[in-house]
């Protein structure tokens, strides 16, 4: 059967699968943290229970007048009066953020309120609407009284002007020539007509409604009691926070893997160092592929599985001690054919590399192979100056160094006059159960002779 080629989508799915398998504890902790953040955000952003109450403004109204009435509905006076009547005794300042108003069609002011319970929301909406109607009625009454007084003054002034005009018309009619001509009769007729029109205007003015344009304000029924909290609810915020933090953790891992430039393949490492890979050795650590948990942060990372490299293949179980010993002996056998003075280079932050270097140095001491360990700084590598016929053997863990770091290490070795004879890649393995005593390993001399 033909195997389909790998695509970017396949690689992404494989990476997501590795994240879910090897970092599920960390992702679960992030989801719990997101849920807690969502629960905290619900205190600030969850509106609780919402309901509305509608108030009808009768009579013709202008658009700006409707907006003014909407502002009056949430005025401090209205909220203070509503707070004084409510059974749970809030303050007007507390209600300011819980009440909002808007203008709907057909001269309707909508009052929207929010509260911690459905009963409180209903009571608050009804009280705000009722107090608004009372306050608006008081404003309209005061405005009407002032309008009546002003209208009376204007009507009295107009009556005096009409009276003077009528008297002038009578004087003009008398002063018209006594001869009965067509022109004089027409003038007298027009003057009498003007006098009659003025008197009719006075009568119409007396009968006019001074309160024209001032309508009543009516509440359109009680507010409905809400049956469920308004969105976003506590459950929605908790679930949204958990999902958001979980996805952020997954995409954060994928972004980290995409930007990770550490080398893991032997050809790439050998090319960056400019030296061959002599062997790959297993390093047994109590934590397998995990770094030792030091300090509070290290213990937390160990508990959540954040100290385990998820982009590397799963750690294999350690082989028997005899096979591991043979690999270390083969490394020493290959080093023995090179320079007489070999310096074992290992980074100060490479835990598996330091363990492998210690085992190599111990075995080299038993086999009388000249080998010294030198730990260099991972940030700024430096190598001691060379002596006659001296070289370096680099011990590093797979996936711990970038190409530029290895290039800088090779340049430091060249500046020190030392030749890189090769590199040893270390692979952490899980310890096995205590092994039963088996046949002894080959003698050091036979191992070195057989692997030369």
TrEMBL record:
<keyword id="KW-0175">Coiled coil</keyword>
<feature type="coiled-coil region">
    <location>
        <begin position="141"/>
        <end position="211"/>
    </location>
</feature>
<protein>
    <submittedName>
        <fullName>Chain length determinant protein</fullName>
    </submittedName>
</protein>
<dbReference type="InterPro" id="IPR050445">
    <property type="entry name" value="Bact_polysacc_biosynth/exp"/>
</dbReference>
<keyword id="KW-0472">Membrane</keyword>
<feature type="transmembrane region" description="Helical">
    <location>
        <begin position="234"/>
        <end position="255"/>
    </location>
</feature>
<keyword id="KW-0812">Transmembrane</keyword>
<keyword id="KW-1133">Transmembrane helix</keyword>
<feature type="transmembrane region" description="Helical">
    <location>
        <begin position="26"/>
        <end position="45"/>
    </location>
</feature>
<feature type="region of interest" description="Disordered">
    <location>
        <begin position="429"/>
        <end position="452"/>
    </location>
</feature>
